[in-house]
Specification:
The complex is a heterodimer of chains A (447) and B (311). Chain A contains eight helices and 25 strands. By secondary structure, chain A is α+β, with helices and mostly antiparallel strands. In chain A, strands 7, 8, 9, 11, 12, 13, 15 and 16 form an eight-stranded antiparallel sheet that branches. In chain A, strand 24 and strand 25 form a beta hairpin. Helices cover 31% and strands 15% of the residues of chain B. In chain B, helix 2 links the parallel strand 1 and strand 2. The chains are: A alpha+beta (447), B alpha/beta (311). Chains A and B meet through helix 3, helix 4, strand 2, helix 5 and strand 9 of A and helix 1, helix 2 and helix 7 of B.
Chain lengths: 447, 311
């Protein structure tokens, strides 16, 4: 069977999206349905899943086996780690970060959401918005995922009743909106029966919106990166020093945001030296203009001392530099992060020494309350952190740029990635530091 | 704050990037990160399409300067001569330095033993890991793609390996944004996969767009093959065919290139890049599912080999 049309071969845009949902909300079924109904599962993959399902004594093929690729995942029937899936339709190509729903894997959800332009949050229509839904919305808001889709699943189990969907959609939209999620689309679906996933449902005449796939195909990809001020972290200095190119000195990097033009006045941070863009080499081709996220090489009019870790920005719109960083972080390592700890901070192409000055608060994702001065953060904790760095950083607020506002904290002793950081103020709703009354342990959270 | 997107989508927008440009830009970024952070990186280069693609991306990433890496090939001794020839011509053309680790040498000196089934693919792990230790490579580029196989779908772009080159999928570093953490202790190294996010179709479309030259065995040609476990294997001195296996002359091509003992050809009339792309787009079989015996050994064959140090 031929499934690819000429349009599919010329599909031009790429959407990176992530899925979030609890184990029983039917996330694997939704992912399986999306892949299966968009004809992205190939025969041998399906055969392998059927074979494995039969070996386990299951009657129907378990589509979760398509994405649960590790031994331990198949043994336990859960998703442990992010899996990336690739599929295409005539209108667009997709990279799907399939993230685990368990709360102990919040760090993996953060991982999947960090590069996503859209997140699909799944809820069970029978249960409506539950704590886990709020956690997913909070993580999407925290990571500033531009688009969120609420997929109200298992509509077949509530007689495809509009009021059930409407109530859940309303509650979620109000909640996620209060967190600062800019765009929310709610879709009633049945992943099991295939309603509104790829094909429009025959059971829900009252719903006039797109199917999940239609929405994924048409949601605008965020070219807003090019509307932000230009940021160019220098990755590598290219100096051939050959007979052919004796004087070539280029600064290689990927434009993190904005647009750069030949002739533009720029400043190099943190030194503050200035020059003018003399040329832009876009992977072998000389161009007048380049934009995020292109990888290019810049040549400047003046021979400045510029090396990896420096940031080139327009003179008129450069970020400030600072050694005092305030940020919201998600702790991703099994060892804790404590006040007074010495760490490495990796921001764009620059890695500097830093010390944890303060941990003002830890967030409880269920109710978004703040636990003051927890002293340390443990795995999957989200909290506020104040850091002092050994050298100045040209840091933007994460709210303005996911690329130049994000950083990692790394353990200098063995290189372990400790913490994912987002510079600047936290998301909208969390300003007041309320005291957490109950000490809910992670183990008690329902998922 | 720029959260609400008002820019129209698609190719009409002056700053839209095609998906191939996005993937190219990401891969180049990864090559440059490694050049900026590591002392002794190496590119695994077999002469197959994924490594040829990687080399092309690396050339673009550092132009007009030469690639600041050397190349490493683990030669199973059962490689396709056309591919080895292409490998050597490519190395010569770009003035690169190629290290070869030879499985045959290990068999000859008794360190490795030939497997009863004759496949040498799993035997590559020891020469590979020893070459990494011997040359003290600290970053090793591989052409692995996440769409190839379900264990590879779990692979990070930067994948830390211990001093035994082992992969522990449960202890991978979370990888956030485009911030790749390449720090490692002495003796450890990082496997780097710049084309993680590419699919087989992306690879072919990019090869067509860039006019990259490939070994001829990727295009339909007549060849003496025989059927083993549902795959067309090339007859040759590596141990096939056996008495009951009949050699036929067929019009075939290869979708993936590895050890001759476990890499099967597919029936094909595709003699041009366009025809190959059309054929792949219509195929209902994955690249590895169709033609790689080593992945069919068990449900977790790839994961198990990767744990031991395989790519």
């Amino acid at each position: 069977m031929t499934i690819t049309t000429p349009e599919q071969l010329s599909a031009t845009t790429l959407l990176r999206f992530a899925t979030a949902g609890s184990v029983d909300d039917g996330k694997s079924t939704l992912v399986g349905r999306l892949l299966h109904d968009s004809k992205s599962v190939l025969t041998d993959q399906l055969e392998a899943v059927e074979h494995a399902s039969r070996n386990r004594g299951q009657e129907a093929p378990d589509l979760a086996l398509l994405t649960d690729g590790l031994r331990a995942e198949r043994e336990q029937g859960i998703t442990i780690d992010v899996a990336y899936r690739y599929f295409a339709t005539p209108r667009r190509r997709f990279i799907l970060a399939d993230t685990p729903g368990h709360v102990q894997y919040t760090r993996n959800m953060v991982t999947g959401a960090s590069t996503a332009e859209l997140a699909v949050v799944l809820v069970d229509a029978r249960n409506g918005v539950v704590e886990q839904t709020r956690r997913h919305a909070a993580v999407a808001a925290l990571l500033r995922v531009p688009h969120v889709v609420l997929a109200v699943n298992k509509m077949d189990l509530v007689d495809y009743a509009e009021p059930v969907f409407a109530a859940t959609a309303k509650e979620f939209t109000a909640y996620a909106g209060s967190l600062g999620v800019p765009e929310i689309t709610a879709i009633p679906i049945s992943a099991l029966a295939g309603d509104n996933v790829v094909e429009p449902s025959a059971h829900m005449d009252w719903y006039g919106g797109p199917t999940v796939l239609e929405h994924l195909e048409t949601v605008p990809v965020s070219h807003d990166l090019t509307e932000c001020p230009a940021r160019f972290p220098v990755q590598y200095v290219i100096r051939p020093q050959t007979a052919e190119h004796p004087d070539y000195r280029g600064y290689a990097g990927q434009i993190a945001s904005g647009v750069l033009r030949v002739g533009e006045s720029v400043t190099v941070l943190p030194s503050g030296r200035t020059s003018v863009v003399a040329g832009i080499d876009a992977l072998g081709e000389s161009v007048d203009v380049a934009w995020a996220p292109q990888s290019v090489t810049l040549r400047l009019q003046d021979d400045l001392d510029i090396s990896r870790g420096d940031l080139i920005a327009p003179l008129a719109d450069a970020p400030g530099t600072t050694q005092d960083v305030e940020a919201t972080v998600c702790h991703v390592a099994d060892r804790p992060l404590a006040v007074g700890q010495r760490v490495l901070l990796k921001h764009t192409t620059r890695t500097v020494k830093a010390i944890v000055r303060e941990i003002p608060s830890r967030l409880t994702l269920e109710d978004l309350s703040q636990h003051p001065a927890p002293g340390e953060l443990v795995a999957n904790d989200i909290g506020r952190v104040v850091l002092r760095t050994a050298e100045p950083l040209a840091l933007d607020a994460y709210a303005a740029s996911r690329r130049t506002g994000s950083f990692l904290l790394i353990d200098p002793s063995d290189g372990t990635t400790l913490t994912a950081g987002m510079a600047g103020a936290s998301f909208a709703a969390v300003d007041s530091r309320e005291t957490e009354n109950t000490s809910a342990e992670d183990a008690e959270w329902d998922f | 704050m720029s959260t609400v997107i008002t820019v129209p989508e698609g190719t009409d927008h002056p700053y839209a990037l095609s998906h191939l440009d996005s993937l190219e830009s990401e891969a180049v970024h990864i090559f440059r990160e490694v050049a900026g952070e590591f002392e002794r990186p190496v590119i695994l280069f077999s002469g197959g399409k994924d490594s040829i693609l990687m080399l092309h991306l690396a050339l673009k990433a550092f132009a007009p300067a030469p690639i600041p890496f050397s190349l490493l090939h683990v030669d199973t001794g059962h490689n396709f001569p056309e591919v080895l020839d292409h490998r050597d011509r490519t190395v010569e053309k770009h003035g690169l330095r190629l290290h070869v680790a030879s499985v045959q040498d290990y068999i000859d000196n008794g360190t490795l033993r030939e497997r009863p089934d004759g496949t040498r693919n799993p035997l590559q792990t020891v020469p590979l890991t020893e070459a990494i230790q011997h040359h003290r490579f600290d970053a090793v580029f591989g052409g692995g793609r996440r769409d190839e196989e379900k264990a590879r779908a779990k692979e990070r772009v930067f994948s830390l390996r211990d001093e035994f080159s082992q992969w522990d999928p449960r202890r991978q570093r979370p990888e956030l944004w485009q911030l790749y953490n390449g720090r490692h202790a002495a003796g450890e190294h990082v496997r780097v996969f710049p084309i993680s996010n590419w699919t087989e179709l992306d690879v072919w479309q990019y090869i067509a767009r860039e006019g990259i030259e490939l070994p001829a065995i990727y295009f339909a040609h007549e060849r003496e093959v025989f059927d083993r476990n549902g795959m067309w294997l090339t007859a040759g001195g590596w141990g096939g065919p056996k008495d009951h296996e009949d050699v036929q002359r067929r019009q075939v091509r290869y979708r993936t290139v590895g050890d001759m003992s476990c890499t099967g050809a597919v029936d094909s009339d595709a003699t041009t890049l366009d025809a190959v792309i059309t054929e792949i787009a219509a195929s209902r079989l994955t690249e590895r599912g169709a033609t790689r015996a080593d992945d069919k050994m068990s449900e977790a064959a790839m994961e198990d080999r990767k744990r031991e140090g395989y790519f």
